[in-house]
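Hey, quick one: can you model this chain's 3D structure?
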Amino acid sequence: MTLFYCPTIATTTILSEEESQHAVKVLRLQTGDEIAVVDGVGGYYKVLITNPHPKHCGFEIVETNTHFGKQNYKLHIAIAPTKNIERLEWFIEKATEIGIDEITPVICRYSERKVVKEERLEKIIVSAAKQSVKAYFPVLNPVCTFEELLKNHKASQKFIAHCYDDEKKLLQNEINKASDVLILIGPEGDFSKEEVQNAILQGFVPVSLGDSRLRTETAGVVACCAISLQHSFKIII
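Sure thing. Here's the predicted structure for all 237 residues.
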């Protein structure tokens, strides 16, 4: 069943112009056709088309699930934007498909990119969530500095993944199920030594993602997979 996104479904049963065009002009849906609609905050609805208008397609809700695909944990990854923005976009797409609750672009000492287009990233999230049939969309936070993140973080478990030859534990061995998890992923040049030490002073546990030295975006996806698999999350290929 084709999936559509309507964040205002609690107050209106009309698809946005973009979604309406896809439903009516591309898929040629007609009155009485059934589609699925998600609101991005857990709502999954089976609906019937009532007004197949290409700019404001109306529908009638016939079945509601308000906690579709709800997980028993929350995953927040704070990741340094990559110099090549397409690599960050790839991470956001794949993390959304796997399952993630919150993403924060964080500017570190060795960051080469300090600006991102949030509107573009939001569109990638919507597209990836629809493709992977997610009713919960991850929250994309505004860009912040490493120092701001340390001051404002909220998680029962918090980790920093870095490449220094210090004592580290394997991430998947440190996860407690049914908890809120925050993982810091650094830029191509890694976190600075000072950043790592400051994070540890704030209670972050230094972790390894394996024996390979990973790109920033790959590290983010590996961390996402490690948490999901640790919580017995089923990934459908």
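One thing worth noting: Confidence is low (pLDDT under 50) at residues 233-237.
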